Amino acid sequence: MLALLLFSLLVLQSHALDVRVPESPVVVLFGSDALLNCSFSGVSAFNLSDVSVFWQLSDTKRSVHSFWKSQDQLTDQDERFSGRTTLFSDQLMVGNASLRIRKVRVADEGTYSCFVRVQSYGSAAVIMQVAAPFSKPLVSWDSDSSLKPGDAVSLSCVAYGGFPQAQLQWQDGSGHNLTENITVSQLANEEGLFSVRSVLSVHLEPNSTYSCRITNPLLGDESQASVTITGQPLVFPPVALWVTVALAVCLLALLIALAVVCRRKIKESCEEMRAEEEAKELEEARVLEEAKSEATPLKS
Questions:
Q1: How many domains does the chain have?
Q2: Is residue 292 part of a domain?
Q3: pTM of the model
Q4: Domain around 105
Q5: Are 250 and 257 in contact (CB under 8 A)?
Q6: CATH number of domain containing 70
Q7: Residue 242 carries which DSSP code?
Q8: In this predicted model, what pLDDT tens digit does every residue of 244-284 receive, in sequence order?
Q9: What stretches of the chain show up as alpha helix (H) in DSSP?
Q10: DSSP label of 132
């Protein structure tokens, strides 16, 4: 039905009606109401019954909203726009054929054509883009109190609920962009809104600061989050130091005591050996003396 009506408008037109829409894309926030401006001029006096307005998607030709015979004609309307579109019928007589779409969704993004017939016919197309800001990013990492400079660590940055896909950038504490060892993934939910997650792998430096910046390319807004990681220096903590010192003192005392005992044992062993040698020498001397005595003859 709508296609036949549009065809008849083309056949019946005598000279083009001047229909105007915004030249730049109309950016609409997700969940808000969109206003697609469309105005017409170049006709003499007319009645409301003379006006026909058709809004449709340019690519699929699906009907978004139709008006003729002084009232809305929504029989052929695409079901996803049901109950969400409005014309300003009280302003049609002054050339306002603008369309309002309530509670815009991601799926509403596209090019819309405005067709108007009043004695003659004209049309124009306007682009509508949907945007949603991302949540403030959150940076986290697997905290480990034993992290030291030089250790490998993975930082995670997440943000939610944005559209279109985000632009993400990591920076170090000096503001230099980091481009290596980075992964980025973006997934859409059932509403078409994206969640973005990025992982940065780095080798820890003392008092390292890292920033994650999220940019919505359509809205131009930016948000960022930073984190500073302080690695433990390569020294013993105080408690461990005192325990180590105590153990060293005990070990030293044990070694000294062992040395004293060993020295005493060695001294005692040497004295015993000396006494045994002296006893052996005395015994040998005694035996020798007795042998001499027996060998000498007795005098009369």
A1: 3
A2: no
A3: 0.69
A4: 2-131
A5: no
A6: 2.60.40.10
A7: H
A8: 777 777 788 777 877 776 677 777 776 677 767 766 767 76
A9: 2-12, 238-295
A10: B
